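Assess this one:

_____
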Amino acid sequence: MAKQRFELENEIIDEEHLFTVDQAEIDKMFKDRPWKKNEHHFKKAKISATALIKMVMHTKSGGDLEVMGVMQGKVKGDTFYVLDAIPLPVEGTETRVNAKADSDEYMINHLDCSDKVNRPENIIGWYHSHPGYGCWLSGIDVNSEILY
């Protein structure tokens, strides 16, 4: 009874469909680009326990240094489904996280390996820590997001 209530209140879903790819649906979404017509198109982000734990462990491991990573998953309708987190070999200070060529190469290699093991999910977002400053978006973060 408690489990059912929790699942209903937190919109817990059957995960099976998250691990199947409907290329026609993806192609249609990228053709229609609903986010270009409505900047508030996306309403939800659902993060797997695995991705959440990996992001928390990564940000905690940075200590006083900022760290950065990307989120891998899929988009369906108005929802981002974050299935995995990929820590990047990047460190920063309180004013800047520099993602260099090393991190680009790392991401490309990771996505290539994902394809080889039949994990076709794309990078759908990024994260980084603000050690000691709480959770907020700096001006640099906002500009980075606009470019993405």
Remarks:
- The CA atoms of residues 74 and 82 lie 7 Å apart.
